[in-house]
Write a structure and sequence with these properties.
By secondary structure, the protein is α+β, with helices and mostly antiparallel strands. It is globular and about 65 Å long.
Length: about 450
């Protein structure tokens, strides 16, 4: 089976199998309950792609020894992270009968440097290295797919692309990054099963599943997913530009983070482009995911929990009486205050109070009658930051990864992550095709003053 783009680059699937845990999952763990936070996660498969440069010497050849070590180390990790080798059974259960992680091997008729040269210009080239099963994964087929699909794609030069896609109802980005990093250590250092212990599996005990019929969740309607035609573009902002951005924002009563400033800069450009396109300012909401593991002071046992423990802080822009595009410092302050208020609202003494707080935030912010329940009325975006996550430390013995790629192309998102070298930040923009066009046609200077392409 092969997938081909316009460039004559072709990816050929060479084998498919299932990697199972090295030790069988005990009977008492074979029905893994999903938590309330798992229930409210988006219904999609989320791929992550890492690219590894070819070897500088002849010390390894992935087709022989490294391949065996790579697969065996995954099997050992699955013994600990047993739910991802199972299958979603229904809305609140994973059946953990060691069905296995789908493992796909592929090869591409290109050298990695040639591929990356094109991928830097057109991020959509990374689609060639995604597991094909996940391209159209949604609510209709999510429960028929493996929870995790891994694809290793080998380039002609010996370079590699590692893609891991996970079913979002089973786990969030924190869980995925931790699994990849620990897997890389197990592979590189040959860590035995009995010493693998890096996550806890207690979320459903603290936050059991609930009846969600009265929840207004921040999910994009299926008709919007199908018609959105979301495309991606990669931007880079270096340390000097971040300093200039800080100067332009000016002094505030707090020291804004790099992520807050970059989100504000991009969001302001989105708002301006929308105004120029529609002839008036629209309401706009930026969902900022917040990892609650270290924010819930009353529940320290959740600090390393597997699953989903995230809430989207709903940052809202509502055109005021002056009906003008907000200044950068206003958006930075709005982002800081909303995230802070969201964390305070969720940091309750009991799980029941935390669930109530999450319900109040979502019911009052996303698609409520007061705010607007149509994408025609409100521009919706999400901005996820993976900065300072140690994903670039994921060395399986092949060195550290270079260009990364995220997302499902189902929602309009900004994905932020640390650049491979220096103190800059890379941004992957996932926008509807028409919005991407208008952004760079109508507000190019807003972006071009700070970002490189």
């Amino acid at each position: 089976m092969a997938f081909q783009q316009e460039t004559c680059m072709e990816v050929e699937i060479t084998s498919t199998k299932f990697i199972k845990p090295a030790s069988s999952t005990p009977n008492n763990l074979q029905n893994y309950k999903l938590s309330f936070f798992d229930q409210i996660a988006d219904l999609e498969h989320l791929p992550l792609v890492l690219f590894y440069p070819p070897p500088t010497n002849n010390t390894y050849n992935y087709s022989t020894h490294d391949q065996e070590q790579f697969e065996q180390s995954l099997s050992r990790v699955l013994t600990h992270v047993y739910p991802i080798a199972g299958r979603l059974s229904d809305d609140d259960l994973i059946s953990c009968h060691d069905q296995g992680v789908k493992f796909v091997k592929a090869k591409v008729n290109s050298k990695l440097n040639e591929f990356l040269e094109k991928a830097y210009r057109d991020v959509n080239f990374a689609l060639l290295c995604w597991p094909q099963d996940t391209w159209n994964a949604d609510e209709s087929n999510l429960f028929t797919l493996p929870i995790v699909i891994v694809q290793i794609t080998e380039f002609e030069c010996g370079g590699l692309a590692l893609s891991m896609s996970h079913a979002h109802p089973a786990m969030d980005a924190y869980s995925t990054f931790n699994i990849i990093n620990e897997w890389s250590k197990v592979c590189r250092m040959k860590i035995p099963i009995e010493k693998i212990n890096f996550m806890s599996f207690n979320l459903a005990h603290v936050f059991p599943p609930r009846d969600l019929s009265k929840f207004l969740l921040p999910r994009i309607p299926e008709e919007d997913r199908v018609d959105s035609k979301v495309v991606a573009k990669r931007l880079y902002i270096n340390e000097d530009s971040i300093s200039r951005l800080r100067e332009q924002i000016g002094e505030l009563c707090f020291n804004p983070s790099r992520v807050e400033m970059i989100i504000a800069l991009l969001w302001r450009a989105f708002i301006r482009a929308s105004e120029k396109r529609h002839g008036h300012l629209k309401r706009s909401i930026m969902g900022v995911p917040v990892n609650l593991r270290t924010r819930l002071i009353s529940l320290p046992q959740l600090a390393k929990s597997f699953g989903n423990l995230v809430i989207e802080a709903p940052v809202k822009f509502i055109p005021g009486v002056h009906n003008k595009v907000p200044e950068l410092h206003e958006l930075v302050t709005l982002i800081r205050d909303t995230v802070k208020d969201t964390i305070i609202a969720c940091d309750k003494s009991s799980p029941e109070d935390i669930v109530s707080a999450v319900a109040n935030i979502y019911n009052g912010s996303f698609r409520s009658q007061e705010w607007g329940n149509s994408t025609d009325e409100v521009d919706e975006y999400t901005s996820s930051s993976f900065c300072r996550f140690p994903i670039q430390e994921a060395d399986f013995g092949w060195g550290k990864p270079c260009l990364m790629h995220f997302g499902s192309r189902h929602i309009q998102s900004c994905w932020l992550y640390d650049a491979e070298c220096g103190n800059g930040i890379c941004v992957q923009l996932d926008l509807k095709e028409v919005n991407m066009h208008h952004l760079f046609e109508l507000c190019h200077t807003d972006i071009n003053d700070f970002f490189q392409f």
